[in-house]
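Sanity check record (used in CI):
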Amino acid sequence: MDSACSNIQQCHYLLAQGKVGEARERAVSAAREVAPLIDAEPRARVLAGFALSLVERIDQKKGAALSLSERVNWLTSSIHGVLWFPILTFGSSKSSAIKSTVFAPLAAKEPELRMPKLAPDFRVALQQVEPNSSLDGLADLYQDLLGNCSFVSSVLSVSAAGLGAQLRDLVFVYPGKPGVSTSDPQHQSEKSSSGMEHLITQMSDTSLNGEKKSLEDGIQMYHEHSQSDQMSPENVVTEASATNRMSLHSLRSLNVPSQATQNLPPLSSLPDATASRLKIRLYFNGCWREAALSPTLPFVSPPYADRSLIVRSSSNATLIWPALLEKAHVLVSGSHYDFTGSNMAHDTYILTRWWPEVFSAGDARKLRRLDRNPHVALGLGSGEMSPRLARELGVVPNHDYVVDSVGEMGVDLINPWQSSERTLHVPWAQLPHFPYVYANHRPQYSHSAAVSFVCPGTEWPDFYVERRPQYVVRTSAKTVHLVVEQFLGPQNVPFALSVYRGTKGRVISTDQYECVSGGASTNARVMYYPLSLNPGVDYTIVVSTGSAKSAHTFSLEAFADAPVDLERARAPHKALPEIKGSWAMGFNGGHWALASYIDNPQYDIEIPTGTECLSLVLVATDHSALVNVHLFHREKADFQKKLRNFDKAKLLFSEDYTRQLHRSEVQNPEPGTYRLVVSCYDNSSTCDFSLVVAYSGREAVSIVPVPQALGTFVHECSFEWRGANRHKLYLRTRHAQARVTFHVRAPARNLQEYIPAVRASVFDAETQEIVVVTSEWNNSIYGVFLECVLEHADRPYVLLVERFERGDGPCRITVGSSAKVIVEELK
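Expected output for Cysteine protease RIM13:
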């Protein structure tokens, strides 16, 4: 059965990696292994039913046999070289349910353990231990050489709450040879039941897409004995910036040098390493997890054999299981016995799943209130202090201590160090020297929900959260307690959890709705947030990693006294594919009062009948950029033609420029064609942007970028007026029916500069016939546009540009055409 359990775990691990075929083989193997035992061993029947149901789910759902949260939890099982699998529950009823921790591991694999080199002649040796289940002396635990005061304080705090047995039950010891179950050795029957072996043989020969009838019959048969449930990790449910908790306070007699380390040989090279095996259960990375470890611990060799690198009891030398728990803890930390620090709230969370909270010791009223709560474990973290003050208080700077009691005169602490002064008293006046209060709240709610997810990296601003993981909390309860955990990884990053009230689906920006909880960025790995709810109001939870460029994994849990659910927040509108662009040189026209405004990126939008809402979101990469969107009514004849003026009469709305992100909505827009212009206020800025267009309605809205150029061929030229008011240019093309657009403009850059009124016309130079003529004068800052078709190839044409009054200065002309046009001065 041990091997079957291992195969089921490996099946999950392979499924999470997308290796469906290999995963199915593991599940089939698990069922075959327990088939001979199902008549004599009830647990074998439960395992068989679970394995069969697992195969059925794989055949039906393929790679989707695991939920997204399950995949995330299994994919994050490898922590610093150790596999920490989510704990599985086999069987759905409480009377028959079995945890995967019941079954012994097949092998224990550990990385090389790093040890501190505390002196030139400091050595340690790994020795196998035989732990007992005693709780005697648990209250007398102390640390000596290892600076893990946070872990020792956590154990002392939980033990003081009368829950020492709960900590002991995190350690599972299995004597015996690998592969032999020691859970119940009396049942090793070879007898098969009800044709099980025949069923398994048929099942193993069934392809993923083959006939399922015999498999389904077998599943139904075993469902009659035990309902096989869905695989699920076991669910039983502010940290200050991590400071280096290592101290030489207790090592001065060793003349400790720098933090050099020594590596021990791998476990596989040690004799009798698998004479007995153990599993450790801890809560991190979104669920309760188990790992197979060896029952070996480091013991200090002479001449320092009277010192200890592991946690010990001053009253019970045989109390060794806390040291095995400590070993698991330092392996999870990644620093091993060369420990670099943690804090008490974080460590208590890993041991118990109690919600961690960190607040200032200056909040004496809150400290007193929590001390009266029997479901809260308390500790203090000392900060930086002078050696004189540390001696006066009897503490070590930057270390954690258990709160024993809170009284009128001050706070009594339990000292986790090996010291004659086991209890310390801190007067209220000295409490500010302890900047952190660690509180862990024991969950008292019967309903919970949990999700695990990946928060992607981003190049966009912190306040643009639309692409961040978002969940809506659903419950009839008035209060919900939220716990968010950043999974252990190569390097954790600051993150923020924000809860917005009165939302309508996904949140786009941080200023869109009222933030009622969280919002601030934290360096903690786990954070706790109590949340009061108003009935009938939607609340959306957003998790953000700020400007982090890489992805990071999180879990979110909600607890309440009524059924609670965390639903993925959905956008209120249907979004079109994201459009990415840039305001580069020549394509950043600036605001509408500049002549270059029409050079901004533009898009044609077609809005069908029945569109209820049009949503526009523009975000820039430059944090200092002021951005805006303008939406104009357009005629169909202007489709794909570059904007030629800023017509306020055709503008649907006018809003101010906003920093880095602009959000606009149009309710019930009329069907038709529109022109969207995205602009940056400063036309000297260059940066990228993202545009998201969303809509509500029966038919889809369409959006098409407008070409920036006037034509396939573009020619730029200019001339000086030199006191004249008329100027002619000679035109010729080698292609008949050439479509040409002329853009004539003065050098004025904004409305404050003088702009002469001009007009333009085109004539056939041979026949003197008019091709196109304008009779109205125009002094638009955006210039004058003229369109025509040059019907004949190799025929001379004349462009006549006129000015209302004589004057000086340059005149610039851009010629855009479907075929190459030669432009020359007419002599």
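Confidence is low (pLDDT under 50) at residues 178-199, 201-275. If this sentence no longer matches the regenerated tokens, the check is flagged for review.
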